[in-house]
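Reading a protein record of the kind used here takes only a little practice. Each token is a code from a learned vocabulary of local backbone shapes. With that in mind, consider the following protein and its fold in token form:
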Amino acid sequence: MSNALIKRTLATESNLLGLVLRIPAGAIFVAHGAQKLFGSFGGFGLAGTGQWMASIGLEPGYWMALAAGSAEFFGGIALLLGLLTRPAACILAITMLVAIITVHLSNGLFMSNNGYEFGLALMTIAVALVFNGGGKLSLDRTLSEALSQELPSGSTRKGA
């Protein structure tokens, strides 16, 4: 992977917006992913979630549950750390779009009817993070600053 691609992936704004969005969204995604993967927090785990996904036409259910649970759990961890925020947020936005279309859209907007408002809010946060990056206090920012101190050859650092 080229140094330029790594720099673009880690690039982030230098504001606190990323932090304000990352922490609560990351915690929510980790919890929902843990429900799907491990049965934590009253979830059904992979087997139960896979059966439910198969019942609504998302086949193969087990693998779809594994994909959605992994995206949410590991993507949420990435958001909490601010590590690879843009790619993680992109995957999470796509995951929420699939959930909205396949599960919630036909129920209308409101959560009280199993609607899509919560998924839409999470998808919107994820899209904002795709554009903003992890912001201050993110590992992306730390790594990006470290990479910017390297000389073009990438072999030594300034002042070394």
Q: What stands out?
A: The helical segments are 3-10, 17-38, 45-55, 61-81, 85-104, 117-132, 139-148.
